[in-house]
Amino acid sequence: MKCVECNFEGPVPRFRYLYNARIDAPITLRQCPNCQTWLAVDELKAAVVQKVTPGEAPWGKSAGIEDLAEDAKANV
Amino acid sequence: MAEPAQVSLKELEKKQEWWWIAERKRSKRLDYLRKAVWKKGALGGNYAPGIKVDLELPTLFTQAWDFWRFDPIMLRRAKTNSNVLDNITIFITDHAQIMGYMGSAPHTITWRLDGASMVNEELYNEPGIMPEPQEESLKKIAEFNAYWGGQTAIDKLARVLDPEDAVKFLSGAIGWGAPTSAYGYSGKNYEYFMTGKRGFEDIIAEIDASIEKAEDRTIGLPGPDILPLYDRIQNWIAMKTALQASIRWAKRFARLARIIAENFETDPKRKKELLRIAETCERVPAKPPRNLQESLQYDHFIQILARFEAHEGAWPSRPDYYHGPYYDKDVNVEKSITKEEALDLVGEFMIRAYEVGGFAPRWAREGLQGITGTWVWTLGGVKQDGSDACNDLTIAFLQAARLVRVANPTFAFRWHPKVKDEVMREIFECIRHGLGYPSMRNDPILINNAMHWHGHPLEEARTWVHQACMSPNPTTKHGFQPMRMASATANCAKIVEYALHNGYDYVVNMQMGPKTGDARKFTDFEQLFRAWVRQMEWIFSLLVRTVNLGRYKDPEFFGRPFLSGISERAVESGLDAVSYVGERGNCWITAFTYVENADALAAVKKLVFDDKKYTMDQLITALEANWDGYEEMRLDFVRNAPKWGNDDDYVDNIMIRCLEECARFSKEIKCPCGNNWPILPENVSGNIHYANIVGALPNGRRLGDALYDGGVSPGPGLDKNGPTAVLKSCGKIDHIGHGRAFLLNQRLSPSQLAGEKGYQLWRAYMKTWADLGNDHVQFNMVSDATLRAAQKDPEKFSEVIVRVAGYSAHFVDISRKTQDNIIQRTVQGI
Asked: Closest approach of chain B CAs to the CA of A60, in angstroms?
């Protein structure tokens, strides 16, 4: 998986697991070991969905993930 | 957001911005006091800017403690506390009518430096709370820590605790808390000191009589029976010393109020108030109260005085019951004060409690985000003769709560079939205003529960108050529990984790529980369940052993002269109130992170043993990898295994089976009084604290994910069949025989429950709740939109309150992870 912030590449578990958006969706929060950026990750695709920063998503860090989780849940 | 002054009340109500409505409706005095109060609850895990640790109390305390070093511990503490009470700086907040705080200034938090060296070291390292000049403060704290190292209550206990138990307990993996009354939850013997029959001078007279009687015997015929009296006389002197110092401390406020009134105050109205304060503080606690102000002041003094003696993590009380007669006398009979003036006093009584705060270690701050302790005040219920105990003050408290909107104290309401509609409407208004309280308790069930588990007689059981968030505790001579330590708090998700990993803990890398077999080789569900039962018995036993020892040794290691002085059985016997002698027993194991067990076991049973979709070997491999690389399998375990809270017998039967095992074992483990240890599933915000301590589980969680939020609440978002299904699942629990109480969080839609129709819907919901025999439910009624807006613009929504678990908090004061966890909870349409 590749960090969208610093292009660091490594297997998903190298990115520190933080917590899930919701238990029944494949979207999680992980942290890049190189630049410490918080990333929203689709665990099924092993891919970064977006960078997570305060204020970037509509309601701050997690609520943006909430929406991603809802979408991902519907698509599984 | 528009300025509130430009928006009509109706519009604010429509937008459910209740905090602006409160600001407009409350009196100028309450508005000032509410805004002037310093928030002591930690924001996530850190103290708010400006909050400083008070060093005056530790200085006065340590000096006197050292000076009186040759005295027995209870007398030494009494004399030491007297030095504090006689000399600590006191203050009167502008416009305030109720006096008393443990710190020397309103922005200070107190430091219980005789509790645990670990906590003292943590304080030294806590950034931001040192008074200026910081370097000088740090030097002073280092000196205190050097003095107290080795002689705090926990230091002493650690020397006698079994070393293996100590290491496993202190790992932080299976339980939390400190087994000492320095940090405990002290129940109070309200039936002794709060019924209007006696003040402290009356108690001192009772103590004097006991001393005189004992001294007559100690100069009489020699024999073994008189030997215990020598210690008891010292204890009685300690109790008397503590009560006398308390009276002197109260009179210092009287003097200060009189000095301000007679020399400085220019406003004649405030001058009159100050003279009334002086009169009040001269009267109580020395003598019994005569009116509402004196009664509230008496109660508040006692709560603060108890906190001069110990940290007191909870605030068990029943204010409408004990102060109600004074409200009735003042407002209805003598008409000496108006309803509005009474509401001011009641609102301030809540604000003064909100003000209280002591330094707590990080685990406690994370576990109780946003607050300083579980100040859950009990309202409603029945009198000892079984009649309705609700009164006009019950309503006044519910109205005041909506005006002052503090997150601490909160209320828990003892519902019973005779509660009048006007009271239920006031309760609903509080919930509709998004306070998250009162929580609703089923009084008939819980009275029976108290009789079932601990053998309290009916009349005594009917006096019960919340000892902490949830647990009923009588307020009677033999029924009240003077010390309940949070360390009988089990991180129950570890039970199923250890059953799956042969007792090994991969988070702390230690063999914790017994070796119950390699789960990869389990061939049927019964093998797993037997392992679960053994791990449960091990965790409960270790925690209870630790707490029992702490309780047994507390009179020797800590000593509670003030608490003893307000406890009938201590005043009568001359023993420390914390001594188990004379107590019936009222213990419970707080079962954190409990529901994961049912969902995890059901998932294994369904997908491994019934459907044979996966092997145990595959499951354990995926769990050891924290589900990394097994996302499809993880989602299968989340989505295709039955989940608690959907009225599905498959998983509900497993939940009940687990509870039956716990109930059976609860009667085998005994407290120092010889009574039972039933479990009480709830979480405060331990579900967040333990997120990084509980490993991956078959319910689909990973290490790091928040655990479920309630005691019997379904997993957030996993209750798919509506609110009745949740109630039906919970209704399958025997709320008398399976445990002490069961916490249920529910989120309701604020738009659906608007207006009269909303109230009627809620009443119908509550009827179903009661008919199904549930003992507890509490509500969040704040929309997702408001909560998300508060995440985005916290400064604009600083007054939004949510129900976290057994307590409420301002939404912006809790961590992002806890906020997310609350948003994830299913909003139930009813």
From this structure: 5
- Please give the interface size between A and B, counted as residue pairs whose CB atoms are below 8 Å apart: 78
Dmax (CA) of chain B: 85
pLDDT category at A66 given cuts 50, 70, 90 is low
How far apart are the C-alpha atoms of B350 and B399, rounded to whole Å?
A: 12
Nearest CA in chain A to B704: A19
Would the CB atoms of A60 and B792 count as touching at under 8 Å? yes
Asked if the Cβ–Cβ distance from A18 to B704 is below 8 Å, we say yes
User: Which tens digits make up the pLDDT trace of B476-489?
Assistant: 999 999 988 766 89
pLDDT > 70 in chain B, percent: 99
Whether B21 maps to a domain, the answer reads yes
- Closest partner residue to A59 among B628, B717, B792, by Cβ? B792
Q: Is A18 on the interface with B (CB under 8 A)?
A: yes
Q: What is the pLDDT of residue B486?
A: 64
Q: What does the radius of gyration of chain B's CA atoms come to, in whole angstroms?
A: 26
Q: Please give the distance of CA B707 from its chain centroid, rounded to a whole number.
A: 20
In this structure, are residues B251 and B284 in contact, taking their beta carbons and an 8 Å threshold? Answer: no
Q: Closest residue of A to B824, CA-based?
A: A22
Residue B12 lies in a domain: yes
Range with lowest mean pLDDT among B1-5, B223-227, B502-506, B617-621: B1-5
Residue B421 CB neighbour total at 10 angstroms: 9
b/e sequence B300-338, b meaning 16+ C-beta within 10 Å: bbbbbbbbbbbbbbbbbbbbbbbbbbbbebbbeeeeebe
Domain that holds residue B8: 4-35
Find chain B residues with C-beta within 8 A of A60's C-beta.
788, 791-792, 816
Report the half-sphere exposure of B286 (CA within 13 A, side-chain side).
Answer: 14
pLDDT in tens, B645-687: 999 999 999 999 999 999 999 999 999 999 999 999 998 878 8
**Domain contains B23:** yes
Count of domains observed in chain B: 1
- DSSP annotation of B329 reads I
The fraction of chain B above a pLDDT of 90, given in percent, is: 85
Q: For A20, which of B629, B632, B705 is closest by C-beta distance?
A: B705
Classify burial at B219, counting beta carbons within 10 Å of its beta carbon; exposed 0-12, middle 13-18, buried 19 or more: exposed
Q: Which candidate from A13, A22, A24 shows the least CB-CB separation from B628?
A: A13
Helix axes B392-404, B421-432, angle to 10 degrees: 10
> What is the arithmetic mean of pLDDT over B223-246?
97
* Under 8 Å between Cβ of B52 and B109: yes
A63·B791 Cβ contact <8 A: yes
Q: Which residues of A37-71 are buried (b: 16+ CB within 10 A; e: fewer)?
A: bbbbbbbbeeebbbbbeeeebebbbbbbbbbbbee
Contact B816 A61 (CB under 8 A): yes
**Complex ipTM value:** 0.88
Six-digit token pair at B75?
Answer: 């007398």
CA distance A55 to A53: 6
